[in-house]
Amino acid sequence: MEAKLIERLEAAVARLETLSAGGISARGLPDSGVEVSSDPSVLAFEDLMADYGARVSAAAEKIGGQVLEVTKLVLEAFTVQKKLLIEIKQTQKPDMAGLVEFLKPLNEVILKVNAMTEGRRSDFFNHLKSAGGSLSALAWIAYTGKDCGMSMPIAHVEESWQMAEFYNNKVLVEYRNKDQNHVEWAKALKELYLPGLRDYVKSHYPLGPVWSASGKKASSAPPKAPPPGAPAPPPPPPASLFSSEPSQPSSSQPKQGMSAVFQEISGGNVSAGLKKVTADMKTKNRTDRTGVVGASEKETRSSSSSFSKAGPPKLELQMGRKWAVENQIGRKNLVIDDCDAKQSVYIYGCKDSVLQIQGKVNNITIDKCTKMGVVFKDVVAACEVVNCNGVEVQCQGSAPTISVDNTSGCQLYLSKDSLGASITTAKSSEINVLVPTGPDGDWGEHSLPQQYIHVFKDGQFETTPVSHSGA
């Protein structure tokens, strides 16, 4: 009796193995999301959301308002990514247009978050910008190979968080002595990506998502033809997170494929629309120009005075040695991603913008900028702040020298590797230096003196900073 039972069980197991090898489930149906959802990588993603996602959600519940709203959208984006990971296991690798259409649900959620940062500035602006900037890390799912122009998935997650961390640190500094709920939220948001998402990608998709070789084909939505007699369609909106149209990166070499897609994340090249000036276009070589300025030309110049005074915006590499970032206004996602230790960066006349320098450069100069944020990794010589007002500079690597001259309001964020930097100030006020104080990402703020007492003693002047004490 027992021998027959064992024989029947072995036959059943053999049949199930045969069905599974042929892509058929035990119910005689093709494999579906029910089986794929039990894949270890999918289960690990659920654990990621249940652990790190729950912490962010719990912290946001204590704050409420827009912080809770944007946190729900962040977690919604993670939920959409989980669904896409399940579909990838059942879908053949698409072309570029098909990939854009495939990732459209994720893009729609990201656009919702970005919309919250527009319009009137919110009291929780730094929270919203931190959450919105962090979502670009989810774009690792679009990595299709070394020739796609993107960083490897693990590196992409780490690099994407760096821009979000600029605003995340502002939340930590603003609320560290006011409301610990906001500090808890900022720390939990960072942990969701580092180490959360980074470690997940490292364990399951270090080389990018694995598409099915025999699954269904991803469909790309064909453009709809307008009905007869209908007016011409409006111009397309600005490119979103995922776009099949190439865009010019900030580096001197044009990028294609997914690198062009994600160049839009960092704001793209603002000088892409400027024409190259050839020799025959220069004023000194033109025969149709004289030294006499006509009345019509005067009127034209006066009507565009706002442009001529500030000059056109620039983000370009000049002569292969100097990055020029000039006259950028309201640009929060400026990125220099192709630089080396022999190049310098000169930032001039920028206002209400944020620049991220990804890589080691020789020297950084910030000149005549207002409400400008600069995040850089390593600098060989020095970082100089001159003639500025209300700027913030964050060093994520090392910097031997930092100088601040004729500047009113400057926040310096130093990393552990840059604590030994020599800081020189002259004719400046409201200079604060923030340094890491513990493993939890807390910051300690130190104000540099701007008033001194000079006493003539023993044949020479002795200078000491003024110390203020409250009653």
Largest sheet: 12 strands, mixed
Number of helices: 12
What structural class do the secondary elements suggest? alpha/beta
Succession of helices and strands: HHHHHHHHHHHHEEEEEEEEEEEEEE
Instruction: Specify the helix fraction band.
Output: 25-40%
- Percent in strands: 15-25%
Mean pLDDT: 78
Strand segment tally: 14
- The value of Rg in angstroms is 28 Å
- Tell the overall outline: elongated
Unreliable segments of 5+ consecutive residues: 18-34, 235-240, 243-256, 261-275, 295-308
* Span between termini: 95 Å
What does this structure look like?
This protein has 471 residues and is an alpha/beta fold. It has twelve helices and 14 strands. The strands form two sheets. Strands 1, 2, 3, 4, 5, 6, 7, 8, 9, 10, 11 and 12 form a twelve-stranded mixed β-sheet that branches. Helix 3 runs antiparallel to helix 4, helix 4 packs parallel to helix 7 and helix 7 runs antiparallel to helix 8. The radius of gyration is 28 Å and the shape is elongated. This is Adenylyl cyclase-associated protein. Belongs to the CAP family.
Which features would summarize this protein structure in a list?
471 residues, alpha/beta, twelve-stranded mixed β-sheet, two-stranded antiparallel sheet, 12 helices, 14 strands, 36% helix, elongated
Summary of the model, kept short:
Pfam families: CAP_C (PF08603), CAP_N (PF21938), CAP_N-CM (PF01213). With 471 residues, the protein is an alpha/beta fold.
